[in-house]
Every structure is written in structure tokens, then in C-alpha cells.
């Protein structure tokens, strides 16, 4: 019997096996038969970069309710949508972002400005103010559950993630327990006479905390050793600080000198990176929960989103009516950014300006990913890079930036000339990173 | 418990203190770490019961204040008389402290009391920096003498040091001085004490053999002069002498412990000790006396006197009156809350640890002076920082992993999902659906719901399933029988299988077939199935196109037809018909394949084997026609050439004619080629190319075709072409079938010819037989080889003669005969050769390809054509004919050549070099290259174009001098400076400086950031990303973003996984 060989087409090889599956396509992948692939990809990359700009509509919405400037924002650790904001008039509002409703409104939470907020657990809120009180609220009730009186006006408060301990910053850092009315520990660097402006617990190593003070200092504490362990004095004071959620040794400082600094607490003699971009003091900063980016709000009325490790050209958000940004926040799902500003509004922005909200199909997502990876690959190209880099800035910011650049340039030139006219090798140029820290005190 | 913990830590921590004192503070960070860690640990251990770490800070403060108060008084006492310089006061004070400690020891203070006091709290307090130096010194001396020296290193008492380093330095200097003084005192004091002790009971002399001693000496010397040095040295010596007999020079700690243990052991003797001490404390005691005796009154002795005032009080107090019934309790009472108590405790516990030396009562040592508050704190901070660093450094591996990851998927740490065990699930299970409920009810009804019930039921079943012995035996028997039968059958099968006899097999098969048939016949109800089966087989048969009656189906049908059993007549008939039909169809198909009409006779099909002749008959006739035509075509040309002037004689007409001729000949050639086969006969040139003896079966083929390097005229090219192709084809055809008619003569060689050789003949005319070889000598490079071959051996040698291996004996003999014939012919030729004038072939440039005129072609072709017609004729006859014709041809050629030779004047001999030069005449390559380069450079060079319009911007008219062109009217076109060109100073290359604008888009000025090498970058850019150039998976992988977030999930910060 002869075997009959028939030309056979297996149906499964060229049809989708299931309704949703993509149709199998067979292509010749030999690069020689695609001589124009590079040109085509470049064009696509350029288009992708332009589309990215075209679709960049970062503003999502504003949360109103405060009469005065928003001073502080706080997010809840285990919820995406709950955010609290405190104002200069002492009012506290707990917002629900997804529903755009106010879960709690405390118009007179404190006398004078609310300086610190921290959402604890699922429905408690700690607040501190210049009225020398720390108040523990239950969300939904108008009266505080507990009041912790202090001697000095509090500037900041932060609660440990997984225990009942919290820290406040006034002239010194105090450690409190929710169940005790007096501070359980005072932490201060011995010779310190400064006002601590902000204090934050490390997110992974909960016993470590850091503070920044008015004496241009950044201090590291450990409540296990009960010591202020090290203090760094810098050129200019820092306004805010934030611990990296994925890199427990990294801390971010928002400095008065328009820059942001990341420090590795293991080596405090110099910052690990400088983030330059703001044209006025940076008032607040917050890491994205992914640790790959962070947001900062500045006195220059802009909110900027930075990529970790890239010290320049951040994403810039601004609106006409947004005033000095006093507080910024990344939501816990790393998709949105919140900013509280002097105009009394809390604004919601997208973390990625051109991201589409709503349901995205698999095809669309694939296309978006393709575009972004194309842009990423071709950003070294002149045209593509230009489109990627260019951001429209409000005129004041633009002019301020120009002025700043001019000043920096002239400074540099002057320094260069000075060096030129001194004896050779006498004055060496100092790296920018080394200029930041004046002294590291032990 | 707490006590033992503390002791151990004390033991370890003290040496570190000491070390710190000797090393620089900055560098001591590391040691401080360990020291700190231990102390911290101790603290933790101590406070574990009551406080958390966090709280540690507050209680300390309270205690500190208490201590401060205690020692404020002391300090006041000490500080007041310091300036006065009472010599013995200090000693006394110290003594008192020590004594108190001793007494405490003896009294055995409660451990509870002890616990409340923290030595560290006592000595590490913040607030008493002011009196830190004093206080610490005093206290620590009471604690243990080995710590005495600590303060003298470079103690920094200044609190403000961090802020104002200069000031602090100054302060340091001051304090150093003070310390130095004090140290001197201490030194003295201790020495004295030692001496005293040594005299009373040779004990507690740590200072003499420890590094402290030397340090003290240094400090003393730094402060005072050589005297002190000597003094101390002397003292040391003395002490050594005293102690040598009692004790080895062991480590301090050991000593302390030894002494303490002894003290504890011999608590009863404590009072005696005390008395001796008291006696030694007497200002007029031996130590001082001795020194006086020595005649040395050092400066610090005065200072000792300063403190003396204070100690006098001590002296006046209890100790004096102790003999008068003062108990140790009395002494201890005021010290109950002080930190001294604790230090005493420490000493006690140490003593409890090891008791070795015998018979000696060791006094507890004074503790070393703790560091100043500020310094201590700084060290602590440093140590704490180190610890924190260590702690966070545990994350470094994780951080590295995260930072190096190509893709991060958040949340990074998956939520720890509680593992649910099967038992848990089973326990929690409650039937929810109808099916589950029914099943569970069934189970419960069957008593199988729970494990226990299942067990029960199983047991019950087992019980009920009990079988009797008989049954079991029966069953076993059955089984055994079965097994036996099976075994036998197996054996039999094996035996049968081994039989190799074919006959047996055949019989077997037939038997089986018979059985099968019977089965077929018997099972009539299964006919339908069988029919189907039969149909299937038939389909297969048809599909194979084996239309023979050898197939399975056909055989079956045949057999069935023969037997006709169990099948209806229709079937049989149908089967037969079908077989017939099948066979006829097979026949038809075969015919079709062989290219015949279905109605052809069988007789024709007989001739199929030699069908080539028959099928080629029509073609043959066509060829004949063509030949005739070509003949007629050739003739008019000749005849016209001879005629007088007419329209056709005019040149353009001639040209046109020639062209037409060429076209037609080409068409003819094409046709011939297309038809293949015997165009060899048709074309004139290659008649002799293949010699084939149809009878003999010996193939004689000429290989090594002719090289015609000279370009030939248009018309003559075709014959060449046809020749080459035809020769190949003829040879192949002859190989295929020996019948192929090639009755060409073997001897003559007719080379390719030009119809009208356009070139003048430069050489002597050749003998016609050698034309082929000499024609190759047209090429000057080939002259030598061809000359040698052509002149002597002649063309015949070139032609290979192939005798097939398979050719038979007869053919071989025939071949021999033929060879002989050829030989005779060759001799003839040689004779003719001799007649011809010898030519120096080296001097000859080229030979014109005048082997044969066009006009000869028809004749030869005619001959060959005639030969084609008369197949298989005698060979001898053919050869004769050929020789005749050849002779005539040769003569003709000679004639023509001679005529041409006259025309071309005399032959010129050329040198080889000249030839080359001539060949490449006008090839100034280098020059041209240089010129081209110059042009290129000039084109790229920057130029200035004067765009002045005459008459514009200047005066015109006669007599106006032309001024220099105005600079703004000179247009400068930027170019490339010749010197900056890449090919500058490179004579042999032109490197274009033109930029490709389109390609420049894909060039980058620098290597972009993440890439580390050009190759890496190139490689990355080479591989496109898109779906068109990648597989689906590759595309997805290539475009996967770095950070992938899960929509709507909270991303928690990194946490320690418990």
C-alpha cells in the first residue's frame, strides 16, 4: 500500500484557536528583506512622541472645600482613594478621590494652621497644628478622640505604619504613643536649637526616622537607640523630606535652593543625586509607591514629576489658577498625583500625562507600550528628543528659568575666571554634589 | 540574673573604654560601636522587664539628676580645696570611696536595690558635664583603678565642640592641662596607695604593669619634669619588688576578680583589712613618708594636699571610730541610693566570677574615669549610627536587585496568602449547591461522611466480607489451573512460531483464508459492512493509479468471481465490469502518457522505442528546407557581388541586405537550436566537431573548443555561437543514441570562419589544416603555445579519441583501422606542410580567422545534407569524399590568403612590450585619477563669487576705471578647505566630503547614555521593535514597560517579610 501524501493545511496554524486570540501571522523575519525598518521605526517614534504630547492632559480635577491655603496633604496607607488635607485656617477635610466627596470635614480642627496630618489605620486621623496640640480623630466624628498637648507649636507629624507610635516635630522630635498622653521619648541632636520643620518615619525600617530643620539641617534618628544619630548641615534648608518606599536607605529632600536631593543614609557626606528643575524653593515632595519616580511641588507654582536617577527635565504640571504648591502627594496606586496649593484647592493630576483613563483594551495597551518603547529608544534622535523634552511653561516660570540660567552661567564663568587667575592647581573646581553638604555632624 | 548579665558586660566593656582613651576619638568609632552595642545590650537586658527600648530615655534622666545631686556635694568638696593643694586629702577621699565599696561588699547589698541602680546611668549622664572630669575620675577610681587613666588621653569636655571647633580646641587644651595635673595627682595617689597596700597586704597594683602606668608617666612628664618620671619609675620598681613574690603579672581584670573574690571569700577578714587601710590612710603613713625619705617632693604632691582637706573629714569620720563599734552597715546607709553602690556591686559580681589566687586579699580597684558626657554621647551616636547603617544595609541586596531589574511588577511583594490545608478545607466545608447536598446526604446515609465513620464502615464491611477456608482454597485452585493452561498455550505458540518451513506457512495461510471465506459466507448480515470495506479498498486502488489486476481489491474481485460464493450475481458482474473498465482505463492513460491518440494502432506502438526517428521526421524535413533556403540565400549575395552596378550594389542596400541576412540566419539558428539535434549538419563550421561512427559505437568527440578572441563581424558571430551550442548538443545526443546520423568525415578540420575578415591579415596564410590552431594565435599572448602545437603536431593531436570501455572487440578493431587511415592522411598533410614556408610564429601578431569562406559553407552543408540523407553508408567512401572536398577547400583558402597578404603590405614584427603599450594606448590612468581628484577638491572648496552687476552701484562710461569688487557683493560659498579634507595628502584615494542628508538623520553625534559601546548601540538599533519585524512574543517582550502596575491595587512599601 502506498502512502499518500497530500498537501495539508493545518487549520490551527493560521486561524485563531479561540475567539479572542490574535490571528497567527507568518512573516519573514529576515532583516535583509526589511531594508527600511529603521526609517519606519524612527518615523513612528517621532509620531509617538508627538502623540504623547498631544494627548498630555494631566489635570483630572480639583477638590474644593478649603477656605484658606492648603498646607498639608496625607494619604492613607492601605487605601487608594482616601486623602486628608489641612488648611491654614485650621480646617481639615478627608476626601474620597474616586467619588469626589468629603468623608469628613472639620472646619475648626485646630486653632491656626494645620501643619501635619497623618491617616492611621482605616479610619483614624492624626493632626497637629500651631496650637500646640496633636489631635486624634475618628473619621466621621466631629470631636477628637484624643488630644495630646505639647509645649511648642507642632510643625509636622508622622505615624509609624504598623504600630501605635507617632512622631511630631516642633523644636525637637518627640515620639508618642497613641495610648499615652505624654511623649514617650524626646529626640534631639544635643546642640540643636532649631525648629524642626518636618519629620518622617522610614517606611521599611520603622524605627528610623529623619527630620529637617530650620538650621539647614537634616537629622537622622533611631528610636531603638533613642538617639539623634547624625546630622547634616547643608547650604540651604530643606522644606520637606520623603523616604523611598523601595529603597529603604534613600531619602529625598526638597530644598530651598530650588533643588531636590536624594541621600543615601549610609553615606551622608554628599547627596547621591541632585534634581534640578524648579525655579523657586521646593516646598514638598513625595515618592511614588513604585520608587521609580517622585513628585515635587514648588514655590514656582508648578508640580513636577521626576524619574528616579534622572536629575533633569521633569514632567511639569501647571495651571493658570494654581498658586504656590505647598504639598504634593502620590496616590498609593502610583497613578495619580495630588497637589495642595495656596489657592485652597487640592488638585488631582495624572501620574503620566498622556495616560488614558478608563478601560484600555489589550490592543490599545500594546500600541501604547510600543509607542513608549519606541520613544524611549529614539529619544537620542534630535527631532524625537526635542519633542520629548520640550514642555510649555507659564511665562513667569519660563523667564525665571532663563534668569536663573543666566545667573548660574555668570557664576560659573566668574568662578572659572577666578580659577584661571589663581596659581595653577590652587583652587580646583568642586563637584556640584560636594557643595551641598557643609558638615556632617556625628 | 540581672547581676550576672551586667557583670559580663562590664567585663567586656571596660577594656574598650580603656582603648578609647588611648586612641584618637575619631578613629575609635569602630571600637565604640562594639562597646556601645554591648552596653546597649546590657541596658536592654536590664530594662527588658519594665520598659521598651523606646522608653529608655526618660528614666535615665531622673536617675541622672539624683546622681548629680550626690556628686555635686562631692565636687564642691573636691573643687573647693583644689587650689589649696592639700596633699593627703585627695588620697583620703579616694580611700574613703574605696573603703566604702569594700564595706559594701562585705555587707552584701540586696540585689533589688542593685537593680535599681544603673552604673551607666550613673556614669553616662548628660547633665554633669561641668564637673564631669572630677566626678568621673573620682567615681571611677572607686569603681576600678584600671579606668583611671581614661580621662588623660585627650578628653574633650567641651559641649560646644561641634559648633565651634576652635573654641573647643582651646578648651581642650585647658582641660588637658587640668587633667594632666589631676592625672599627676592620681598617679601619685595610686602609687601611694599601692605602696601602702603593698606594705599592708601586697595587693591591687594594677598600675605598675598596665599601659596605664606608662601613660600616667607620660602625662606627668608632660606636665612637670623629669623628677616625676623618676619618681613614678622608682615607685613602680618598688612595687614590683614587693609584689614579685606574691603574684604573677597578670591582666588587670584577672587581678580585680581575684582580689574581689578573695574579698568575698574572706568576708570575715574584711574588718582586718579595713583596719590596715585605715592605718595606711594616716597622713603620716609609709607612702608619703617614704617619698619624703627619698627626698622627692613633686609638684603634684601639693595638689594632693588640696584634696586632703576633704579627706580629712573622711578620716575624721567613721573610719577612725570604726574600732569603736562602727559597723559596715552604718557606712553603707548614706550610700544606699548613690551610684557608688552600684559600682560596688559590679566589683562584687566580678569577684563572684572567678576566684583563683590563694591567701591574698585583693582590694577592689577604682573604676576608670568615664568619658565626658559630650564625648561619650558622641561616641554613642556614632555607634548607634553604625548600627543603623548595618541595619539598613541588610536591604542592600534587595535594593540592588530592584535597581538592576529590567522590569518591575508592582506590588513587588506578593501578599502573603494564607496556605489552607486540606483538613482545614474539609472541616470548613458545607454543602451549598444541590448536588453537594445530595452527595453529602448520600455519604452520610452511607455512613461515609467523616473519616471516622468511613473507618467504621470499612471495618464493618471487612467483618462481613469474611470468607470460608474452603472457598479460598477453591478459588486458588481455579486460579492455578488457569495459570497452567495459559502457560501451556504460551509454550505451544512459541514452538509454532519457530517453525520455518514455507510449506507449512503456506498451508497455514490457506487454512486461514479458507476459514475467513467461510466466515464471509456465513456472515451474510454483515455484507453491507463488507461492501463498504471493498469500496474503500477500491478507492485506494484507484488512487494509486495502479490499474492492474494485482491489487488487493482486484485480486479479491477475481477470486470472488471465481468462487462466486455468498455474493449476488450483480456484485460479481459489477466487479468484473469494473475490473475491465479499470484495465482499459489504465491502457488509455498509458497511451496518453506516451503521446498517442487513443485510436493509434498497436503496430505503431511497437515502434515506440525508436520513436525518435519517427517523431523527428517532420523536423528533419523542416531542416532540409532550411538548408535549401540558406543555400539560396547565400547564392544571390555572391552572384550580386559579381554583377555590375545596380541598386542592390549600393552600399546601404548591401548593408541592409546583410542585416536582413543576419536576422534570418539568427532566426534559423534559433529554430535549429530549438528543435535541437542535428543542426550540426546544417551549420557549416562544426561539421567535424563530432565524429561518430554509428556502426562501431565508438564515440569520437572533440573536446577543447576553439578560442576565438578576436571580435568577429556581426554576421559571423552567430555561427560561432551555434557551433558551440550545437557541438554540445550533438555530443550529448550522440551519447544518448548512437543511431544519430552524423556522417561527417573524421579528418577535415574546419575552423570557424569570418565571412569577410575585416582586419588585414598580418601573417602568412596558413595551411588549411592548421587554421584552427593558428587562429588562436591571433592573441599575442597565446602565440608560443599555439605555435608549438600547431606547427608540428597538427590539429589531430588536439582531438581526443575516446574509446568507450564497453565498446566491443570488433569496434576496437574498426577503430584501429580508422586510425591507420588517419595516419596516412597525416603523412600527406605533413608533406604539404613541408612545402609551405616556415613562419616564425613568435613574431606574428595574429592570424586572421580565415579558415573558410562563407561561400564554402553551402557546399559543405550541401554535402553533409546529402550525407544525412544517405544513412549508414560505407565509411571508406565517406572519408574519400571528405578528403577530396578538403583538398579543394585548402587550395581555395591559400589563394585567398595570399591575395590578402599582398594587400596588407609586409608583415610587421612587434615587440612584446610594444604590443602591450599598444594594447593600452591612451590609458593615462594615474593622470586621469589625479585630474579627477583635483576636480573633486575644486568642487568642494570654498568659493567666492563676484555678484557685481556691471552698471549698478558704480559709474559707467568711458574712462571709468574698474574698481575692486565691493566686499558685500562677493558671495562666499562655504565649502571644504582642501587641507581639511579626509584625503588630504593621500594621493591614491578620493574621499568624498559630501554628506548624505537623509542618512544623517540616523546618525548620532555621541553615544547615547545607557549604552557603553558603539557596537552595543548599533546592535540595539539594528533590531527593530515593531510587530512587523518580530514575532508576537518577541514584540511583547521588547515593548514590555519597565514598571508594570496592577490597576487599582495599593502598592505597599518594601517590608520585612516575617
TrEMBL record, chain A:
Region feature Disordered, mapped onto this chain: 1-27, 409-442
PROSITE patterns membership: WD_REPEATS_2 (PS50082), WD_REPEATS_REGION (PS50294)
Predominant location: nucleus
Stored SMART domains: WD40
Location in the cell: Nucleus, Nucleolus
Any one Pfam family match given in the protein's UniProt record, by short name: WD40
Biased amino acid composition, Basic and acidic residues: 423-442
Keywords tagged on the record: Nucleus, Repeat, Ribonucleoprotein, WD repeat
Protein name (database record): WD40-repeat-containing domain protein
Mapped WD repeat ranges: 107-147, 275-316, 318-359
The family this protein is said to belong to: Belongs to the WD repeat DCAF13/WDSOF1 family.
Domain Sof1-like protein, first and last residues per copy: 352-437
Gene3D superfamilies referenced in this protein's UniProt entry, alphabetically: YVTN repeat-like/Quinoprotein amine dehydrogenase
Originating organism: Lentinula lateritia
Family matches, as PANTHER family: DDB1- AND CUL4-ASSOCIATED FACTOR 13 (PTHR22851:SF0), U3 SMALL NUCLEOLAR RNA U3 SNORNA ASSOCIATED PROTEIN (PTHR22851)
Keyword Repeat: yes
CDD domains: WD40
InterPro entries for this protein: Sof1 (IPR007287), WD40/YVTN_repeat-like_dom_sf (IPR015943), WD40_PAC1 (IPR020472), WD40_repeat_dom_sf (IPR036322), WD40_rpt (IPR001680), WD_repeat_DCAF13/WDSOF1 (IPR051733)
From TrEMBL, chain B:
Alphabetized UniProt keyword annotations: Nucleus, Phosphoprotein
Keyword Membrane: no
Pfam families per UniProt: Utp14
Extent of Polar residues compositional bias: 1-22, 211-222, 276-287, 346-357, 765-778, 857-867
Domain of life of the native organism: Eukaryota
Disordered: region residues: 1-50, 72-91, 97-127, 141-327, 344-391, 510-529, 545-647, 674-907
Localization per Swiss-Prot or TrEMBL: Nucleus, Nucleolus
Biased composition (Acidic residues): 102-127, 174-189, 225-254, 262-271, 599-615, 879-892
Compositionally biased spans, kind Basic and acidic residues: 308-319, 375-391, 510-520, 572-587, 628-647, 674-684, 797-807, 822-835
Amino acid composition bias (Basic residues), ranges on this chain: 545-558, 812-821
Main location: nucleus
PANTHER family: U3 SMALL NUCLEOLAR RNA-ASSOCIATED PROTEIN 14, U3 SMALL NUCLEOLAR RNA-ASSOCIATED PROTEIN 14 HOMOLOG A
Protein name per the record: Utp14 protein-domain-containing protein
Originating species: Lentinula lateritia
Amino acid at each position: 500500500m502506498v502512502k499518500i501524501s497530500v498537501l495539508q493545511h493545518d487549520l490551527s496554524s493560521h486561524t485563531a484557536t479561540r475567539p479572542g486570540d490574535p490571528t497567527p501571522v507568518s512573516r519573514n523575519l529576515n532583516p535583509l528583506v526589511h531594508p527600511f525598518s529603521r526609517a519606519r521605526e524612527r518615523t513612528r517614534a517621532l509620531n509617538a512622541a508627538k502623540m504623547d504630547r498631544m494627548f498630555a492632559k494631566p489635570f483630572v480635577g480639583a477638590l474644593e472645600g478649603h477656605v484658606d491655603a492648603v498646607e498639608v496633604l496625607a494619604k492613607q496607607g492601605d487605601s487608594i482613594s482616601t486623602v486628608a488635607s489641612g488648611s491654614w485656617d485650621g480646617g481639615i477635610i478627608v476626601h474620597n478621590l474616586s467619588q469626589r466627596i468629603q468623608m469628613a470635614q472639620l472646619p475648626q480642627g485646630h486653632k491656626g494652621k494645620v501643619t501635619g496630618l497623618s491617616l492611621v489605620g482605616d479610619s483614624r486621623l492624626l493632626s497637629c497644628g500651631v496650637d500646640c496640640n496633636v489631635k486624634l480623630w475618628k473619621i466621621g466624628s466631629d470631636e477628637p478622640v484624643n488630644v495630646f498637648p505639647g509645649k511648642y507649636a507642632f510643625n509636622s507629624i508622622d505615624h509609624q505604619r504598623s504600630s501605635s507610635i507617632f512622631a511630631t516635630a516642633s523644636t525637637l522630635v518627640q515620639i508618642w504613643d497613641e495610648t499615652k498622653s505624654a511623649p514617650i521619648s524626646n529626640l534631639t541632636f544635643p546642640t540643636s536649637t532649631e525648629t524642626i520643620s518636618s519629620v518622617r518615619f522610614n517606611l521599611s525600617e520603622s524605627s528610623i526616622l529623619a527630620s529637617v530643620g530650620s538650621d539647614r539641617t537634616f537629622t537622622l534618628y533611631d528610636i531603638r537607640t533613642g538617639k539623634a544619630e547624625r546630622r547634616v548641615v547643608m547650604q540651604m534648608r530643606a522644606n520637606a523630606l520623603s523616604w523611598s518606599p523601595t529603597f529603604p536607605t534613600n531619602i529625598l529632600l526638597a530644598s530651598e535652593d530650588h533643588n531636590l536631593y536624594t541621600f543615601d543614609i549610609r553615606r551622608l557626606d554628599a547627596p547621591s543625586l541632585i534634581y534640578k528643575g524648579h525655579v523657586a524653593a521646593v516646598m514638598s515632595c513625595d515618592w511614588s509607591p513604585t520608587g521609580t519616580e517622585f513628585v515635587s511641588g514648588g514655590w514656582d507654582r508648578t508640580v513636577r514629576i521626576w524619574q528616579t536617577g534622572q536629575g533633569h527635565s521633569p514632567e511639569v504640571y501647571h495651571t493658570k489658577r494654581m498658586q504656590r504648591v505647598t504639598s504634593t502627594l502620590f496616590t498609593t496606586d502610583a497613578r495619580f498625583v495630588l497637589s495642595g496649593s495656596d489657592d485652597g484647592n487640592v488638585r488631582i493630576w495624572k501620574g503620566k500625562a498622556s495616560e488614558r483613563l478608563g478601560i484600555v483594551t489589550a490592543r490599545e495597551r500594546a500600541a501604547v507600550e510600543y509607542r513608549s518603547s519606541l520613544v524611549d529608544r529614539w529619544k537620542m534622535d534630535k527631532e524625537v528628543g526635542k519633542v520629548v523634552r520640550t514642555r510649555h511653561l507659564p511665562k513667569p516660570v519660563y523667564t525665571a528659568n532663563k534668569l536663573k540660567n543666566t545667573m548660574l552661567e555668570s557664576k560659573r564663568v566668574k568662578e572659572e575666571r577666578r580659577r584661571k587667575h589663581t596659581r595653577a592647581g590652587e583652587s580646583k573646581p568642586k563637584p556640584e554634589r560636594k557643595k551641598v553638604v557643609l558638615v556632617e555632624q556625628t | 540574673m540581672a547581676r550576672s548579665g551586667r557583670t559580663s558586660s562590664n567585663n567586656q566593656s571596660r577594656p574598650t573604654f580603656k582603648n578609647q582613651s588611648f586612641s584618637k576619638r575619631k578613629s575609635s568609632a569602630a571600637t565604640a560601636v562594639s562597646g556601645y552595642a554591648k552596653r546597649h545590650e546590657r541596658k536592654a537586658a536590664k530594662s527588658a522587664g519594665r520598659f521598651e527600648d523606646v522608653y529608655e530615655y526618660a528614666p535615665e534622666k531622673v536617675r541622672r539628676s539624683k546622681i548629680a545631686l550626690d556628686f555635686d556635694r562631692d565636687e564642691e568638696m573636691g573643687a573647693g580645696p583644689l587650689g589649696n593643694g592639700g596633699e593627703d586629702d585627695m588620697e583620703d577621699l579616694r580611700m574613703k570611696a574605696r573603703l566604702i565599696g569594700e564595706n559594701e561588699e562585705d555587707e552584701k547589698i540586696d540585689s533589688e536595690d542593685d537593680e535599681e541602680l544603673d552604673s551607666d546611668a550613673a556614669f553616662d549622664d548628660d547633665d554633669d558635664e561641668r564637673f564631669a572630669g572630677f566626678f568621673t575620675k573620682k567615681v571611677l577610681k572607686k569603681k576600678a583603678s584600671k579606668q583611671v587613666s581614661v580621662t588623660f588621653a585627650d578628653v574633650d569636655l567641651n559641649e560646644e565642640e561641634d559648633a565651634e571647633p576652635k573654641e573647643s580646641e582651646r578648651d581642650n587644651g585647658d582641660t588637658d592641662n587640668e587633667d594632666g595635673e589631676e592625672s599627676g595627682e592620681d598617679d601619685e595617689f595610686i602609687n601611694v596607695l599601692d605602696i601602702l597596700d603593698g606594705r599592708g597586704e601586697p595587693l591591687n597594683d594594677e598600675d605598675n604593669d598596665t599601659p596605664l602606668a606608662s601613660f600616667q608617666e607620660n602625662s606627668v612628664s608632660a606636665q612637670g619634669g623629669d623628677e616625676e618620671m623618676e619618681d613614678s619609675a622608682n615607685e613602680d620598681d618598688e612595687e614590683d619588688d614587693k609584689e614579685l613574690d606574691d603574684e604573677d603579672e597578670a591582666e588587670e581584670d584577672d587581678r580585680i576578680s581575684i582580689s574581689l573574690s578573695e574579698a568575698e571569700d574572706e568576708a570575715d577578714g574584711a574588718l582586718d583589712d579595713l583596719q590596715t587601710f585605715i592605718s595606711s590612710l594616716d597622713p603620716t603613713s609609709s607612702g608619703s613618708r617614704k617619698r619624703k625619705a627619698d627626698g622627692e617632693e613633686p609638684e603634684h604632691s601639693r595638689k594632693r594636699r588640696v584634696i586632703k582637706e576633704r579627706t580629712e573629714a573622711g578620716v575624721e569620720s567613721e573610719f577612725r571610730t570604726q574600732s569603736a563599734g562602727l559597723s559596715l552597715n552604718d557606712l553603707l546607709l548614706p550610700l544606699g541610693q548613690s551610684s557608688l553602690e552600684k559600682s560596688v556591686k559590679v566589683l562584687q559580681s566580678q569577684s563572684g566570677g572567678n576566684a583563683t589566687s590563694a591567701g591574698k586579699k585583693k582590694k577592689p580597684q577604682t573604676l576608670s574615669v568615664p568619658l565626658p558626657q559630650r564625648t561619650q554621647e558622641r561616641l554613642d551616636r556614632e555607634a548607634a549610627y553604625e548600627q543603623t547603617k548595618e541595619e539598613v544595609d541588610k536591604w542592600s541586596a534587595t535594593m540592588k536587585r530592584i535597581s538592576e531589574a529590567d522590569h518591575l511588577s508592582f506590588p513587588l511583594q506578593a501578599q502573603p496568602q494564607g496556605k489552607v490545608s486540606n483538613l482545614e478545607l474539609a472541616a470548613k466545608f458545607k454543602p451549598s449547591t444541590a448536588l453537594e447536598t445530595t452527595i453529602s446526604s448520600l455519604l452520610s446515609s452511607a455512613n461515609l461522611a467523616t473519616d471516622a465513620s468511613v473507618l467504621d464502615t470499612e471495618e464493618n464491611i471487612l467483618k462481613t466480607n469474611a470468607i470460608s477456608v474452603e472457598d479460598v482454597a477453591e478459588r486458588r485452585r481455579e486460579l492455578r489451573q488457569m495459570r497452567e493452561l495459559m502457560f501451556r498455550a504460551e509454550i505451544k505458540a512459541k514452538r509454532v512460531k519457530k517453525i520455518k518451513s514455507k510449506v507449512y506457512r503456506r498451508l497455514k495461510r490457506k487454512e486461514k483464508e479458507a476459514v475467513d471465506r467461510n466466515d464471509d459466507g456465513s456472515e451474510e448480515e454483515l455484507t453491507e459492512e463488507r461492501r463498504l470495506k471493498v469500496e474503500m479498498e477500491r478507492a485506494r486502488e484507484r488512487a494509486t493509479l495502479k490499474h492492474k489486476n494485482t491489487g488487493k481489491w482486484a485480486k479479491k474481485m477475481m477470486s470472488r468471481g471465481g468462487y462466486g460464493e455468498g455474493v449476488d450475481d450483480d456484485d460479481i458482474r459489477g466487479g468484473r465490469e469494473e475490473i475491465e473498465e479499470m484495465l482499459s482505463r489504465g491502457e488509455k492513460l498509458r497511451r496518453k502518457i506516451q503521446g498517442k491518440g487513443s485510436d493509434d494502432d498497436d503496430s505503431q506502438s511497437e515502434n515506440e522505442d525508436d520513436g525518435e526517428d519517427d517523431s523527428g521526421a517532420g523536423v528533419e524535413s523542416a531542416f532540409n528546407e532550411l538548408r535549401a533556403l540558406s543555400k539560396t540565400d547565400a547564392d544571390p549575395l555572391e552572384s550580386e557581388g559579381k554583377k555590375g552596378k545596380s541598386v542592390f550594389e549600393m552600399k546601404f542596400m548591401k548593408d541592409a541586405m546583410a542585416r536582413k541576412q543576419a536576422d534570418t540566419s539568427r532566426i534559423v539558428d534559433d529554430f535549429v537550436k530549438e528543435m535541437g539535434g542535428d543542426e550540426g549538419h546544417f551549420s557549416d563550421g562544426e561539421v567535424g566537431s563530432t565524429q561518430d561512427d554509428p556502426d562501431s559505437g565508438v564515440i569520437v568527440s572533440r573536446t577543447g573548443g576553439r578560442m576565438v578572441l578576436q571580435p568577429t563581424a556581426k554576421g559571423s558571430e552567430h555561427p560561432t555561437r551555434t557551433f558551440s551550442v550545437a557541438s554540445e548538443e550533438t555530443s550529448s545526443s550522440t551519447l544518448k543514441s548512437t543511431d544519430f546520423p552524423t556522417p561527417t568525415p573524421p579528418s577535415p578540420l574546419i575552423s570557424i570562419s569570418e565571412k569577410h575578415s575585416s582586419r588585414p591579415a598580418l601573417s602568412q596564410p596558413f595551411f588549411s589544416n592548421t587554421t584552427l590552431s593558428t587562429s588562436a594565435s591571433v592573441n599575442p599572448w597565446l602565440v608560443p603555445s599555439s605555435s608549438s602545437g600547431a606547427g608540428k603536431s597538427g590539429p589531430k593531436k588536439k582531438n581526443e579519441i575516446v574509446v568507450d570501455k564497453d565498446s566491443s572487440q570488433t569496434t576496437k578493431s574498426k577503430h584501429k583501422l580508422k586510425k591507420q587511415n588517419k595516419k596516412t592522411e597525416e603523412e600527406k598533410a605533413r608533406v604539404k606542410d613541408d612545402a609551405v614556408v616556415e613562419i616564425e610564429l613568435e613574431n606574428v601578431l595574429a592570424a586572421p580567422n580565415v579558415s573558410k569562406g562563407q561561400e564554402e559553407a553551402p557546399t559543405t552543408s550541401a554535402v553533409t545534407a546529402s550525407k544525412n540523407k544517405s544513412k549508414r553508408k560505407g565509411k571508406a567512401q565517406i572519408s574519400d569524399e571528405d578528403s577530396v572536398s578538403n583538398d579543394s577547400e585548402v587550395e581555395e583558402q591559400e589563394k585567398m590568403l595570399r591575395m590578402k597578404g599582398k594587400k596588407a603590405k609586409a608583415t610587421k614584427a612587434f615587440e612584446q612590450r610594444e604590443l602591450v603599450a599598444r594594447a593600452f594606448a591612451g590609458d593615462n590612468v594615474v593622470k586621469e585619477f589625479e585630474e579627477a581628484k583635483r576636480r573633486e577638491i575644486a568642487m568642494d572648496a570654498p568659493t567666492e563669487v563676484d555678484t557685481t552687476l556691471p552698471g549698478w552701484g558704480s559709474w559707467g562710461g568711458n574712462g571709468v576705471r574698474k574698481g575692486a569688487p565691493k566686499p558685500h557683493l562677493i558671495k562666499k560659498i562655504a565649502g571644504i578647505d582642501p587641507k581639511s579634507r579626509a584625503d588630504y595628502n593621500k594621493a591614491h584615494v578620493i574621499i568624498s566630503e559630501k554628506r548624505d542628508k537623509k542618512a544623517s538623520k540616523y546618525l548620532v553625534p555621541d553615544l547615547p547614555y545607557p549604552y557603553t559601546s558603539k557596537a552595543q548601540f548599533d546592535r540595539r538599533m539594528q533590531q527593530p521593535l515593531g510587530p512587523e519585524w518580530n514575532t508576537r512574543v518577541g514584540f511583547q517582550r521588547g515593548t514590555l514597560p519597565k514598571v508594570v502596575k496592577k490597576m487599582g491595587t495599593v502598592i505597599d512599601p518594601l517590608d520585612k517579610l516575617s
